[in-house]
Design brief:
- The chain has three helices and three strands.
- It has one domain.
- The mean pLDDT is about 90.
- It has helices at about 5-20, 20-30, 45-55; strands at about 65, 70-75, 80-85.
- Helices cover about 40% and strands about 15% of the residues.
- A three-stranded antiparallel β-sheet has the order 1-2-3, with helices on one face.
Amino acid sequence: MGEKEKKFEEQVLEVLNSFDFDRAHKTMEYLDWTWASLGRIPTRQELTAEAGRLLRELAGKPGVRGSGGLRASLKEDATLSLKFVVCESWSDPADDDGPAQ
């Protein structure tokens, strides 16, 4: 593993270690939020594994990956983040179709 990859893996571990998976899991239980691939609410360990997969999928390249409420992103300035998204809305001014109905 090269120095760049090692640094990125350190970032991944820092994000995983500081994320409140218990809070995300409790929210999923409260909302009865199941993952289609499991047919049930994921365990805390499954949430953690999926978050790690999404973060590592970025492989040091800016972008966004998401699944099951989890969203991993890496910005151009190398900021790595993990979010658990319950609800979101946005508007893209470049979208010629206008707002969704």
